[in-house]
Amino acid sequence: MEDCKPASSPSKRMQQQMMDSESPYSLLYCSSKGDRDGVLQELEKGVEPNLADYDKRTALHLASSEGRAEIVLLLLEKGADVNSLDRWGRTPLSDARSFGHVEICKILEAQGGIDPVGLDSQAPCYEIDYSEVDMDEAILVGEGAYGEVYLVKWRGTEVAAKTIRSSIASNPRVRNTFMKELGLWQKLRHPNIVQFLGVLKHSDRLIFLTEYLRNGSLHDILKKKGRFDPPTAVAYALDIARGMNYLHQHKPHAIIHRDLTPSNVLQDEAGHLKVTDFGLSKIAQEKDSYGYKMTGGTGSYRYMAPEVYRRESYGKSVDVFSFALIVYEMFQGGPSHRAEAAVQVADKRAYEDSRPSLSSQVYPEPVKMIEALRSSNICDFICFLGSLDLKFELEHVSTKSRVGDGGGSDMAGVTLHWSLE
């Protein structure tokens, strides 16, 4: 069991939300991990057991999804609402049934739990009738490596409609892989993962819906603000790491993102980051025999692990490599070797062992962490799954900020650890 130590975050973004966002966030995280001591610690602080994240998902939702029966009992004992509804009208019992947690279903039903969603035995629950979404009124809001992203309305709610490029989707193997992945995506629930809503059926294109996050991507934020102050960079790193840890610990098989970049990390209205587009590179990979290749224009090459570029076998550590480069960018204010073409940067990392140079005089302690994360032998000592467990600890954090005059922040000793459990 993981010892969950909630991270303090002194940035202005977090200070403003300390009670209504960060504390319940820790409660959610500990509940999903099955950390009874961590849950009790948060509740004893006075955190309301029914407080939820931006998606209105409570600790009971997450504990039910993850099969944490002991935590479910504890939360119910402490007054958690057994029938709390998330953004999509799902109760904790809805989630427990979706994941096949029979014991938890019995516990929730005994406490009056209901499942307003239910399961449609005639069709997969992730299928959405095409007539429910007016694609003719869709607004193009983005374009990525795999297709376009549109803003549409579904049942009165703004959502993102993502299309898979016809050049990719026309391949029968791609379509088959896509449909297999859908069954997995619709079961994933985490505060730092963009929520998959469903796929449009009766469409000649591959179109799936996700929640829409209007604050944009981490790439957009970096482009606008440049280098982050250390508390904000650490808070954002925690958001990404929690989401990736959830994917890497997925059972029975880990989910590897393969294309983790700032453009694939979005910000919600509460200021937290969520990982998106996981699994799409796996689908597109099916088109290898037809010449598919991730384009440098999307930014993928800049964050690509050497073994991926060399087309070698790889594992979860490729995401850790990309994550380290994103952390670098948050502390340094931009990508490394920005004057060079992305494909040249990837080639040098793959065949010349080139690595970014860091300005150690800026924030020396984070630099040490980044140096370790992007080490050339990263596969030997770091990953998110199994006996290597992800844990960030923030020690001796203090900041001095000047507001309004463009002044920066001074950090006294931020230390981030990847620790063995």
Question: What descriptive keywords fit this protein?
Answer:
single chain, 421 residues, alpha+beta, Serine Threonine Protein Phosphatase 5, Tetratricopeptide repeat, Phosphorylase Kinase, domain 1, Transferase(Phosphotransferase), domain 1, 3 domains, 17 helices, 10 strands, 37% helix, globular, disordered C terminus
How would you describe the overall organization of this protein?
It contains 17 helices and 10 strands. With 421 residues, the chain is of the alpha+beta class. The chain folds into 3 domains: 12-110, Serine Threonine Protein Phosphatase 5, Tetratricopeptide repeat; 127-211, Phosphorylase Kinase, domain 1 (2-Layer Sandwich); 218-411, Transferase(Phosphotransferase), domain 1, CATH 1.10.510. The strands form 3 sheets. The chain has a 6-stranded mixed beta sheet with strand order 1-5-6-4-3-2, with no helix packed on it. The longest helix has 19 residues, at 230-248.
Named CATH architecture of the largest domain: Orthogonal Bundle
Tell me the radius of gyration.
21 Å
Output the CATH homologous superfamily of the largest domain.
Transferase(Phosphotransferase) domain 1
Number of beta strands: 10
Main beta sheet strand tally, sense and closure: 6 strands, mixed
Numbering strands along the chain, what is their spatial order in the largest sheet?
1-5-6-4-3-2
Quaternary state of this entry equals single chain
In sequence order, what are the helices and strands, one letter per element? HHHHHHHEEEEHHEEHHEEHHHHHHEE
The CATH class of the largest domain is identified as Mainly Alpha
Provide the domain count: 3
**Uncertain ranges:** 1-22, 119-123, 286-299, 374-421
If you average the pLDDT, what whole number results?
74
- The CATH topology annotation of the largest domain reads as Transferase(Phosphotransferase), domain 1
What's the N-to-C terminus distance? 9 Å
Q: Give me the number of helical elements.
A: 17
Work out the strand percent.
5-15%
Counting helices, strands and paired strands, the structural category is alpha+beta
Q: State the shape.
A: globular
Task: Please bin the fraction of helical residues.
Answer: 25-40%
ANK repeats: 55-87
InterPro entries: Ankyrin_rpt, Ankyrin_rpt-contain_sf, Kinase-like_dom_sf, Prot_kinase_dom, Protein_kinase_ATP_BS, Ser/Thr_Kinases-Pseudokinases
Protein name: Protein kinase domain-containing protein
Domain Protein kinase: 135-421
